[in-house]
Amino acid sequence: MHRFIVWLDFEAVIEDMWLGEISVKADVRASRFELLKISGNIGKHNFSRLHADIRKIVGIYERSGVPISENDAYRSLDSIYEWLFDNFFAYHASTIAEFLNDIRLAIHCYLREGFVRSHHFPAGEEILYRYRYPPGCDDDLAKAMYWDLMNKIGRRPIFPKFTVTQSLKDQF
User: Fold this and answer.
1) Which domain of life is it from (predicted)?
2) Closest listed residue to residue 116, CA positions, set 102, 104, 129, 128
3) What tens digit of pLDDT does each residue of 118-142 get?
């Protein structure tokens, strides 16, 4: 998890990011987290819900030495999205998948210990199994959710641990 946080906080540089709508080319510097969040918001919202992101874009360009106005940022949303989504994060998608898979496997390993502690077969039963609920787990909904979670943890993860080739991690 810590490695993913460090990776997200890294200040990336997108060289020669061209915004054709306003004829601006810049080496854009921002954390991968900022860029990922802006890209995601542009992808799911229309321009009327992007004011906070527009201010972030203006700030990123200002820090990168090429000031633009909020109006310029709004006009450039299509180009910004294309650069971030189609180029920057398309390149990093496999690295992000590796990090998320590692987190998922760590959660599975952690919960597996709880599964081993709580899973048992009642005396005289060979087919039926039960779970010993953790202390304080008295609510019916909580018990049902715990049961479902333990059933999922009892199976092996679908994806094994994998690593992405270093050539897909060196740029940006």
Assistant:
1) Bacteria
2) 129
3) 999 888 777 789 999 999 999 999 9
